[in-house]
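Ticket #4471: structure export looks truncated?
Reporter: QA, pipeline team
Priority: medium

Steps to reproduce: submit the single chain below to the structure queue and open the exported record.
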Amino acid sequence: MPMRAQPALLAVPATLTAACLSVMAGGQRGGFVAERVLWIAVGVVLVVAAHLLPALCRQHGWRIRVLGAALWIGCMAATCYGHAVFFLLAQKHAGEVRAAAVPAVTTTGRNSAVIAADRAAIVSRLARVTERRCAEPCPSLRIERATLAARLDAIDVEATEAKRQEAAQDRADAARAAAVADPVTGTLTAFGIPSSRVDLLAGLAFAAVLEAVACFCWLLALRPVESSKPNTGAAVTPVTEPSNAVTEAETAPEMTIDDVTRVAAAIADGRLRGTVTEIRKYLGCSQTRAAAIRKQISEPAKPALN
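Actual output as written to the record:
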């Protein structure tokens, strides 16, 4: 089947790109090596079938075209699904790389819950010490009150530092979460669409556009060669055509008796069907000449049929 060069320049890269996507998606699906190889083989076959089926079925009858259309729809659905898997995994990996670039925040010391519990215990002890009364000055009581007050101040400072670190950790986590999501996806989520659904629809859209481009380019690349001249069959002897229209009467003298005899003998032996197309292929002549030969062969049989 002849191939047109210009559409093929886009059809071949599109098919190679789609096949590479299937290779990547198949490699990420399977667990064992054999499973990955089979997933890759299935994906590549489906890609090639989805791209070439419309062009291959175009010249056949309507039954073959209907069957080919059903197979093509199945191949397209499976291929788009496989490509969507690749796009989603690629987006996930890209998000992980962006998140890893966010500076990590390390927290030191105790967390706020432990500090709050320790502070509550100190406040309770300070309250009990404050309520004590002595008949005479009690240095030990004053020392204990001062110690507990100092510990309470230290606990407050520690709690402030813990809150600052927790706030920094929260900001880092928010930045990491924002880096994981695709920028366009994050914008679309403002309209109430879940990010996972946006990623899936975007992957399917990219896959569908790629497959459509490849199928259309192969249709153009494998398009049958059209010609306005009737002698589009096998190699024929060049015939100089006059500028005006050639009538049947003018072309009849050009036919030799040998051509009519050869065709009649081949039909009688069962080696040739008496159709214009078969005669044209057998003699390698033009459509007009084959039609004239067919008419000459059938003319003597008309009285017998009546």
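Status: closed, not a bug. The export was complete when the record was re-opened. Leaving a note from the reviewer for reference: Residues 112-179 form one domain.
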